[in-house]
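Listing S7. Sequence submitted for prediction.
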Amino acid sequence: MSSKSAKTSKGRSDNNKHSEANVKMSISDVKRRVLEVLSEADKPMKLHNIAEKTGLNVKSSMMHLLWLRKMGYISMLEGNLYSITPLGRQTLSLPKQAAGLPKIGKKEAETILRLVPIDKAFHFHTGIGQYLGVYATSLNDFLSKIKTVNIKSIEFHVPRKDFESWIESLGDSELAKKIRAIRVAGLLGENLRQKMYETVKSRFDELSQVVSKV
């Protein structure tokens, strides 16, 4: 084999290894959502359209698009259009377990869904020293309060990582990661409430199913 052929063969091998590594790499929920939007559109999209569909601001969208492009999950076409690549579609097709989301057992699910005493509950504020008199003593209770609590309280707690810390204290690192992704997305107002509610409800339903299994 010639030196040139050997280099070509090695290059292909390295590229294959690089692609496999990319597919196996865990990506954040926000970046996954960007890929889902591009996949569902089934056509190239402009930056502002992606931002609108994902609920992200333009700056955050650009940041995630740059990372996804660098990793080969999306490509940029003429006219500043973004398109999902075969590697990006392959990543979306991976089961959650392959994407870095750990399985959870019945006992762990029961622990996360347990009732906690009031001193361990989440207490909602709209600012320092501005307690609403509203608290949640379980994940289900938290879900209910997120739906109705003053939006200023959600906007106060998200940037402070208060929700993430409390969810971690329940023992649910995975949900904490998802809430962290919401914080990074920079959502505000009712878009923030809706995303929080949908994320917590999805996880609550998932855990409830685990618990109900015989």
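Caption to Listing S7: primary sequence and predicted structure tokens for the chain studied. Residues 10-93 form a domain with the Arc Repressor Mutant, subunit A fold (CATH 1.10.10.10). The radius of gyration is 21 Å.
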